[in-house]
Amino acid sequence: MDLQIKGIAATPKGQDVLFSARKKSLKGWRSKSRATHEDRPAEVPSLDLGKLGDSDDENNYTPLSKWYPRLGCPDSSSTVSWGTPLQTPVRRHRSQKAVQPEDESYDDITALDMKALVQQCYTSKPYTVQQSIRKLEAEDLAAQRRKQAVVEQVMIDQLSRAVISDPEQNTIAGNDEAVHRLQGFGPVPLRFRKRTLHDTKIKTNLSLTENVLSNKLRFDARIISRNGRDACRELIGFFFGYDKSLTIYEYRQFGRNRTSTLPFIKKGIYSHQRGRRKGKPYELGDFYSGANLTFLTCDHLNLSDSVKQNPLLTLRLIDIDDKALDSFKSTLMENQQGLTKELDDKATFLAVQNMVKEKLSKRGVRTVTRLGKFFRQQDKKGNGLLCKSDFKEALKYFHLELPEKIFESVWTILDENCNDRVDYGEFTRAVIGEMNEYRKEFVRKVYMKLDPSKTGSVSMTDITKFYSARKHPQVLTGTATEDDIKSSLLETLVDACSNPNEVSYCEFEDYYEGLSLGMSDDEDFVNVLRNSWGV
After folding, report:
1. Which among 91, 166, 313, 314 is least buried, having the fewest CB atoms inside 10 angstroms?
2. Distances from the Cα of 496 to the Cα of 73, 99, 217, 371, angstroms
3. Within 13 Å of residue 162, how many CA atoms lie on the same side as its CB?
4. Which domain holds residue 403?
């Protein structure tokens, strides 16, 4: 056969015949092969990942999830690890609708407490001595400029209002002459009976002068509120010694250069709206750092709707002009007797706080945040008021029981109207206590940085973005990574929040209220905020 093929291929015609035969044979093989593959399913070769070698660049590669940890996996049934310990608390709080009673082991230190205590390790100063001095000088200069702008606006408003509204302005010689000229023509037209700006005297006998208004006491204040927008308002007030009146202005800043100063509480003589001296007018002795001023919101129509939701507006004085206060020392001594009962109430609260302080030294964050969440869930009406049984139940759940006699003493002081209703914020501050104003000032600075638009809530994405653990001692020594420290913060915040995707102002403040209980030194607490948030 091979000889026959070789003989045919020897001629040109034979080569053509042989080529045609091979072409037909190839077509038959292809059709047969196609039919075979159609009958049999396709097989995918297995991939052996164990034979792959490590590249030189893998040690320098940083996964995306390391710098931007996910707050939860998109599919609860997925078994893929997303590199963050926040998956469990996120799923837990989405399904959990109410705070459950704590068991007997609540006093023990849990893993969540240990993660919260990690945030207390920032004790190193974030700046050198020279940097700290320059930063403090810049902050003081900016604060002085704000206060000076408010002082100038107050002087302008009060002086101009006093002059224009003085009754003596109505007796103007020019108007009298115009009236005499028109007596023969019947009634005097209305336009001649009204005083114009050109007829206004610059000075009258009864009008205020700058020297009278200069006898004033300046103070800084903030609103005690669970609303972040109201709590971060910058208020500057003045108490005038000549008539014992007061006024409060709000300083607003839009961007870097645009500012405005608007009246918040109009000038007038006001009285205490709660406390031992309810109904008595404010005296000079009522103005000191840490004091509260109360006003009825219905008397001030220019207040925001969020402030008007509560019938009572409470302001906390955070700073006082010491130089002006020294000039009023003689008057201040006369009013010290009226403060005796209030000081006794504060002594009662301090004794209660000392009783629970030791219990909260290690579990402060967990207790304060969950206690606040419990009160907000019990507050069905949203007015912040709860009854006595609710508070007793809360103290029992969180192992903060008080002797019956001491609890009744606290309740008698707080329940002024005897209606069995007390604001749970005041109850918490009375039993557990609160940070001093120096610490609260930095907490507000951090929250204002996170929420520049003053919406009242901050997303967890922004928390992750702004928080920095680079200067944490465990990161510097290599015992923990930045992601570990950041995850510990996020997990404790998620446990504290009703919505796991955002943090409200009251929840953010409760977190640092609990953290503050275990830190006795103010500078250590401030360094925690400066190192981690860059304020």
Report:
1. 91
2. 20, 11, 40, 9
3. 18
4. 342-432
